[in-house]
Specification:
The chain is α+β, with helices and mostly antiparallel strands. It contains 20 helices and 15 strands.
Length: 475
Amino acid sequence: MIPTNLDLGKLLKETNSTLKIGYLTYIAGLLNSIPSRTKDLYDDGNEYIPINAQELRKKVNNYKPYIQFLFDNDVIKSNHQYIVGERATGYQFTDKYLFADQDWKEINGFTLLKSLNKVDPFQVRMAKKYRYLKSCMDDNLKIDASAALDYNNQLYRFNSSVTDEQYVYNKSGKLEGKKTINAHLKFRCNEIAINEIIDQKWRFHIDKNVGRCHTNLTNLKSDFRQFITYNGQPLVSVDLKNSQPLLSGLLFNPKFYSTETEKTEILTFGKVMKERRSISNKNYKKIREISLYIMMLNNEFSIGGKGFQEYFDFVQSGTLYKEYRKAVFEATGEEIEKKQIKKEFLRTAYSKNGFISQPSAVYKRIFKDMAPEVFEVFRLFKVGDHTLLPRLLQCIESIIFLDYIAKRIRSEYKSMKIFTIHDSIVCPLGEEDKVKAIMTEEIIKATEMLPVFEVEPWIPGIKESPFYPNLKIAI
């Protein structure tokens, strides 16, 4: 999908370029396809799309002249920000193309098409392994197109947060202007995601590192779930509350550090290594050292002091984020928005160890004071590689939800269609009690932690917004 006013053939002819139009079309299309599959990309006011050079080279080996051509002809711009191992360079359309309508464009070129259509053996294996989930993505899964697209239009006006006098219209009545860039980008991503469901262009992709399942539903912003039905019936999601912190409780259980893969009900490090390639034997030395620390905590402190006990009381009651928000307010006077508190907590828990000495690491120091033993174990996991902790927890999550919970539901209730959104199971409205019962049993078996759930029916509702009176908001 590229801007309708972008005539790459004309540009190639005018510049006497010998570059291939198919490759240019593919690269330009990434500025729409990447954000449409990364639903939170624009939430922090970001404007640029990170394009991983290594991944791009797999499709367009000699990609640099193509990027340069798009620069030279004012098609794209860049933030020129690249950090090795952390951040890819970001690109975006220039204003001329950013606010234009977008439409699907056929890609030509035998070599590129061969590369794009190349079957990934890993995804073939995963499609077979999780056929009980992939088979649910069929033509009975629908979205109320007119309601969803209308909602997206209203949401666009709401997100713009500017008065009518600040809007800039072109001759055809289209909205333009830098003040509306972020709102426009969100609008476009939502529109692509909605249209892919309308056109039934199903996605089913298993992450190669942590095993998470990515589909049209995981990429759809939560605002639009109210418009989704299956076989004409509404759906409901059963979400595990404060899932990552709860699953982290497994890291404090000495049984987890076993290399056993078969004989235990509890999920062990050995099972994680067997099922997920992101965690391997090279991590085992560190894991072994941490297991000794955990055994010490068990022997000397009955797993820690007051901070530890409070942390897991909060986790198993589903109130951790609420209590963390309260602790931040008491320490700083700052009141973090409820919808942001999960993101802030995970950022605090997963950030590099050295960050704690920075003046801006106030929230991290609050977490350390709140649960020092938990903080220390998290710190140990991040020594030398701060990504190990989040990768390990996401591996644990994906195994429990995809391999245990979803598989058992589809085995016991063969006619029930379900979908996963990472730490939640989506099922037909009215079936949530059956789903919740299996989720509870499987999580307790795998982690020996008591889960708490939040049930959210996907039913359209109308709530008047103080900022935009006619904005529909899912209740």
